[in-house]
Amino acid sequence: MWLKRVAIFTDQTGYEVNLALPPSRIISLVPSQTELLYELGLEKEVAGITKFCIHPAYWFRTKPRIGGTKSIHLDKIVGLGPDLVIANKEENVREQVEAIRELVPVWTSDVSNLETALDMILGIGELVGKKAEASVLANEIRNRFIRLRRVASPLKTTYLIWKNPYMTVGRDTFIFDMLNSCGFDLIWPDYVRYPEISIADLKAAVPDLVLLSSEPYPFKQKDLDELQEILPATQIRLVDGEYFSWYGSRMKKAPDYFQNLIDELGVNP
Question: Which residues pair with 106 in a beta bridge?
Answer without folding.
Answer: 85
